[in-house]
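Q: My labmate handed me this sequence with no annotations at all. I'd like to see what the chain might look like in three dimensions before we decide whether it's worth expressing. Could you predict it?
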Amino acid sequence: MKILIIEDEVELLHNVQEFLEQESYLIESATNYDAAVEKVLSYQYDCVLLDIMLPGGNGLDILRVLKKEKKDQPVLILSAKDSVEDKVLGLEIGADDYLAKPFHLSELLARVKSIIRRHMHHGNPVISYKDVTLNPDLRQVQIGDRDITLNRKEYDILYYLMLRPNKLMEKTTIAETVWGDNIDQADNLDFIYSQIKNLKRKLKEAGAQIDIQAVYGVGYKLI
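A: Here is what I predict for the chain of 223 residues:
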């Protein structure tokens, strides 16, 4: 799962990033308005943590840009501005939640999980398709009643595809989601193949009723 932190306070940015990385999230960041707008319009995130006061612009204007461009990016506002007016305006524009600074990292994590669950899982704590079940909070995968062990990339690929069964997903989009935004600058994306090959093998060995189909030159589809 990939999170974008839009925050100009360097110490806070680093603290939040380090904490969320320990929780196995992939973190991207932007420290000013222009960089943030470029990120949210170019890439997709499971959750955006958005500061209101930014060098070069206002975080609420980023929400307006997302709304204008019809980009469905889940957003949690993080701001020292704790007035009712700011909260209401942010939520009206399109934010999903509002957390005032200073905050406890444990509460931040709970809010992030709640937002992702509402957006990606339709409120369900687990994701199921055929006989495979993922518990994102525990990063646990079960086939039937058996646990299977996946490495971080294998799990993230399966999670991404489980949310989109029977949909052909481009290789570049999978790479950006699992490896990070700048992966689109790589010479090639052959490294995805080895991870999916191992994932397919583990699913087959566990007797899963799902498989990952490669569409040559395009991407992959969960079937």
